[in-house]
Amino acid sequence: NAGVTQTPKFQVLKTGQSMTLQCAQDMNHEYMSWYRQDPGMGLRLIHYSVGAGITDQGEVPNGYNVSRSTTEDFPLRLLSAAPSQTSVYFCASRPRTNPYRTEAFFGQGTRLTVV
Amino acid sequence: DAKTTQPPSMDCAEGRAANLPCNHSTISGNEYVYWYRQIHSQGPQYIIHGLKNNETNEMASLIITEDRKSSTLILPHATLRDTAVYYCIAAFAGGTSYGKLTFGQGTILTVHP
Fold first, then answer.
1. Are A47 and A76 in contact (CB under 8 A)?
2. Min CA distance, B80 vs chain A (Å)?
């Protein structure tokens, strides 16, 4: 009964370092997405995927890369971390079928600090 | 996706009904209204959604006006654990936009003892 699992929960990076935030879901959902949430703000969409091998940009994609090689995993890569990327990152998944059950499931977040 | 407007904050006494309004005057015919909440910076949690009919589940009720330009989320008997940020979102449930949710600032609901 894992749902959406994000790792790590906390991370501190130095400016210029790269890293990958992991997201895995065990519900066989086709749709997955990454959001960031800055203090006092709502969530903003970074990248999303409608299935394995298919990704697209959201509202704030600069500085991030994604790939979707399997249905289960949707990693988010920070190419060269900047202090402006200090944020809480949420991964979400959602089933494609059945429009009457279109809720999204969110992970518990990764709190990233770039110094 | 249609833009939604919510009051920034609301208060409610424990045990009373909390009625959270949302304006979505530019909503299109195939956009659903979704409600999520976020407690203590945890991941958002789905509450309820609807298209044009009123909906009820174990958590809440959703009342959508006949012209679909506004809606109200009702928590019938608010508890302290309902203190959270509540987000109202208008979004398509299909096509290539499916899976994308546009979050605004939401309404901070504070439930008082």
1. yes
2. 21
Task: Determine the pLDDT at residue A55.
Answer: 94
Please list the ranges in chain A whose pLDDT falls under 50: none
A107: closest chain B residue by CA? B43
- CA torsion, points B13, B33, B91, A58, in degrees to nearest 10? 10
Which among B44, B99, B105 has CB closest to A48? B99
Residue B39 neighbours by CB under 8 Å, 6+ apart: B45, B81, B83, B84
Which residues, 6 or more positions from B91, have their beta carbon under 8 angstroms from its beta carbon? B1, B31, B32, B34, B97, B100, B101, B102
Cα(A9)–Cα(A6) distance, integer angstroms: 7
Q: How far apart are CA A9 and CA A101, in angstroms?
A: 28
Task: Please check whether residue A81 is in contact with residue A18, taking contact to mean a CB–CB distance below 8 angstroms.
Answer: yes
Tokens of B91: 């979004």
Would you write out chain B's pLDDT as a tens digit for each of its 113 residues?
678 999 999 999 999 999 999 999 999 888 899 999 999 889 999 999 999 989 999 999 999 999 999 999 999 999 999 999 999 999 887 665 666 788 888 999 999 99
Residue A47 β-bridge partners: A34, A57
